[in-house]
């Protein structure tokens, strides 16, 4: 039986033992990471890598949209943000536009930071 990389095992355990809130935070972090990787790929003129990482970012945002709990009015607000971000990612992918990706990353960081604040406040309650 092949031995597993300790880092891979740690990452797997981290995900398996995470709360739903922590998984959401990890997904925001992943979207930011992939968006950064797409920006770097454009800077290096590696359009295939840029495309791959933009698509990874899009899939995370699509998952956020698909899992919104629509019984809460705030879900519609988040949906509008996610639709906007997806549209900008689509535009960035077509044009391979670094500035558009930087704008998307700004929105993703804002969403992540908001989520962290929600988590912090819920832990105090």
Instruction: Report the major sheet.
Output: none
Count up the domains. 1
Task: Work out the radius of gyration.
Answer: 16 Å
Instruction: Give the helix level as a range of percent.
Output: over 70%
CATH topology: Four Helix Bundle (Hemerythrin (Met), subunit A)
CATH architecture: Up-down Bundle
Report the mean per-residue pLDDT as an integer. 92
Order of helices and strands: HHHHH
Task: Provide a descriptive summary of the structure in words.
The protein has 125 residues and is an all-alpha fold. The protein has one domain (19-120): Four Helix Bundle (Hemerythrin (Met), subunit A) (Up-down Bundle), CATH 1.20.120.340. The chain has helices at residues 6-16, 20-43, 47-66, 74-95, 98-124. α2 runs antiparallel to α3 (47-66). The longest helix is centred in the C-terminal third of the chain and has 27 residues, at 98-124. It is globular, with a radius of gyration of 16 Å. 21% of the residues are buried. The mean pLDDT is 92.
In short:
The protein has five helices and no strands.
List the topology elements.
Layout: H1 6-16, H2 20-43, H3 47-66, H4 74-95, H5 98-124
Helix pairs in contact: 2-3, 2-5, 3-4, 4-5
């Amino acid at each position: 039986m092949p031995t597993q990389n300790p880092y891979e095992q740690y990452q797997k355990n981290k995900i398996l033992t995470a709360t739903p809130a922590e998984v959401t935070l990890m997904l925001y972090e992943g979207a930011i990471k992939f968006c950064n990787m797409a920006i770097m790929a454009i800077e290096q003129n590696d359009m295939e890598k840029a495309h791959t990482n933009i698509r990874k970012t899009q899939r995370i945002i699509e998952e956020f949209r698909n899992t919104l709990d629509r019984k809460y009015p705030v879900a519609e607000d988040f949906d509008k943000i996610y639709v906007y971000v997806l549209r900008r990612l689509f535009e960035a992918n077509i044009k391979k536009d670094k500035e558009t990706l930087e704008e998307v990353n700004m929105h993703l960081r804002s969403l992540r930071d908001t989520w962290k604040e929600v988590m912090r406040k819920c832990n105090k309650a």
